[in-house]
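Open question from group meeting: does this chain pack into something compact, or does most of it stay loose? Before anyone orders reagents, we agreed to write out a predicted structure and look at it together. Recording both the input and the output here so the notebook holds the full record.
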Amino acid sequence: MKRDSDHDDLRPLSFEEEESADLRKQFVRSGIRLALIFAVLVACVYFAFWWSGSAIRFGAARAADRSTPTWQVSGTVRDASTRAGVAWARVEDDPRGNPPFFRADSDQNGAFLLHTLAEPHQIRVVAPGYRPSVVDVGRVWFLWMPRGREKRDVLLVPE
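Structure tokens returned:
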């Protein structure tokens, strides 16, 4: 039974009225908690399917020799003795690795951006008058995300 909201009525609530009001509050709180837990579980399942699908697509493209570069390696090529940028250095996937091979050149200040594959491999940096340098890039498959960025600065030793 519903009580009239009369401001002059100062009579305390009965035990049953207090108990039903308390149960309503608990029901609402439990409902909100369950809805949030359900939303988090759905988001986790969605993420797992997205990640596994991306990994399968990456592996299938790699096996079919149709890989597209999804990993960005950026940095600066510098002279090891002067720390000055080395202009027009060639930054490329190491030809001793698995194809496909991707390549980029550094700009006039030595900065470069190489689009390559996310898997662990090596890149080689070559410039006239310097010894070639080899740098490890990429991620192990279970830590790897389908797209990403990595920063690697390279020091070249003059010949």
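Observations to bring back to the group:
The chain has two domains: 14-66, 71-156.
The beta strands are 71-79, 90-93, 103-105, 111-116, 121-126, 133-137, 148-151, 154-156.
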